[in-house]
Structure formats: C-alpha cells, structure tokens
Design a protein that fits this description.
The protein is α/β, with parallel strands linked by helices. It folds into 2 domains: 134 residues, Rossmann fold, CATH 3.40.50; 67 residues, DNA polymerase, domain 1. It contains 8 helices and 6 strands. It has a 6-stranded parallel β-sheet, with helices on both faces. Strand 4, helix 8 and strand 5 form a beta-alpha-beta unit. Helix 1 packs antiparallel against helix 4. The longest helix is centred in the middle third of the chain and has 19 residues. The chain binds 1,6-di-O-phosphono-beta-D-glucopyranose (B16) and magnesium ion (MG). Magnesium ion (MG) binds next to loops.
C-alpha cells in the first residue's frame, strides 16, 4: 500500500449537521418531509442526487428550473454554516495521524463528492496535509462510481491497487471496491460487510499493516 485516499465529510470533518440544517430549511419551505434518517441517505451522494433522493422519498417531482433554484439555495445556506468552521473542527488525533502516515512515506489524497472540499480544508487549515484533492469539482459521476477515487490515485501517481480508501459511507466503500482499492470503513461504514478493514477511531489507521 502506497497511498491513502480520505473521504472528507464523516471522516476528517463532520459537516453532515450543516448539510442537515440546509436541506431541512429547503425542505420545510417546499413542504417536503426531511429528518435525520433521510439525511443519512445523502452521505457521500452529490448535491443534485441528494435532492432527487429527498423528492423520491416524498413521492414528489419538480421541474428542473425549480430544482436548480433549490440547489442554489441549499448551497448558500450550507456555505454560510461552513464559514463558521475553524481549525478546532478537526481533532488533534486526525492531524497527528495524517502527519504520521506522511512521515511513514504514504501519499495522501482527499476523495470527496463535495464541491466545497477545498473551502472546508482551507477553513480548518488542513490543505497542506494532503498531496492531492479529488472532489466534486473534478468528477462527473457520484459515488458508488469509483471516479473520485481513481482521480485521486491518478493525481498522486499511484496505482489504484496500492491505494486504501477511508470512508464513512456505504456508497464510498462500494466505490473503493469498484475501483480495485482497499476499503476501510469508519463510523457508519464500520458496520458494512464489504469493507476490507474497519476502524473504530481515526488513529487505528496507524495499526493497519502492523499486525496489531
Ligand atoms: P456539496 P463526502 C459529501 O461529502 C457529503 O457526504 C454529501 O452529503 C454531500 O451531498 C456531498 O458531499 C456533496 O456536497 O454540496 O458540498 O458539493 O462525504 O463525499 O466528503
Ligand atoms: Mg463521507
């Protein structure tokens, strides 16, 4: 294994609460039902696909122009929440583990569906911790398609078979496996049988491959 590719939301930072607040506001305005359980279905899914899931769950259809407006509104609300993030929104455990993996010679990339990934990394002062960022801005297909991770491997110049993906979403583990990569589940995805490894806490990554 030569590289790690990290999902962002749910692995490095916890922006799902902001996604929830933004979608909730948009859904309430439209008279659509939305709760924390439905928010879970949106993990790792692109913004446009997330709206389609909310509409599907509500058995509602909307014209594309209205959907486009709702996507702009959701992004504005979400972005305002992201503005409040600081360095303290990333734990010391995450910072130390990333630094140690780098010290051990691994290449590190982000592999996130989010178009806001560069902004989030900037807010939490973590941009320099990674050798590459593959995100929602450089892909056309959302997880479980492996595109975002394959691009990450390409940016790092590492063969996909030598990359491990760290993911909190089932769709993310499926994407890693579809790309021929090792899938490491954390959080929600720690309960997913398709994950090659599961970790309880981020620093457990330092034990993988050491036989501990
Ligand atoms: P944006 P990840 C994903 O991030 C989120 O889990 C998902 O809920 C969100 O819809 C998606 O990013 C797109 O985000 O609206 O910022 O482009 O888990 O892939 O890092
Ligand atoms: Mg995630």
């Amino acid at each position: 294994m030569k590289a790690f590719i990290f999902d962002l939301d749910g692995v490095i930072v916890f922006t799902d609460k902001f996604h929830y607040l933004a979608w909730k506001e948009v859904a309430d305005e439209q008279g659509l039902y939305f709760d924390e359980v439905m928010n879970n279905l949106l993990r790792g899914v692109s913004r446009a696909d997330s709206l389609d899931i909310i509409l599907r769950e509500n058995h509602r259809e909307l014209p594309q122009e209205v959907k486009d407006e709702l996507l702009v509104k959701k992004q504005a609300i979400y972005r305002a929440h992201l503005e409040t993030m600081t360095r303290d929104d990333v734990t010391q455990e995450v910072r130390d583990t990333l630094a140690e993996l780098r010290r051990r010679g691994y290449k590190l990339s982000i592999g996130s569906s989010s178009k806001n990934a560069p902004f989030i990394l900037e807010r939490v002062e973590l941009t320099d911790a990674f050798d590459a960022v593959s995100d929602g801005n450089n892909i056309t297909r959302s997880k479980p398609d492996p595109e975002v991770f394959l691009k990450g491997a390409e940016f790092l110049g590492v063969d996909p078979a030598e990359c491990a993906v760290v993911e909190d979403a089932y769709a993310g583990i499926d994407a890693a496996k579809a790309g021929g990569m090792i899938g490491i589940g954390i959080g929600d995805a720690a309960g997913y049988e398709k994950a090659d490894y599961v970790i309880e806490t981020f620093s457990d990554l330092l034990k993988i491959g050491t036989g501990v």
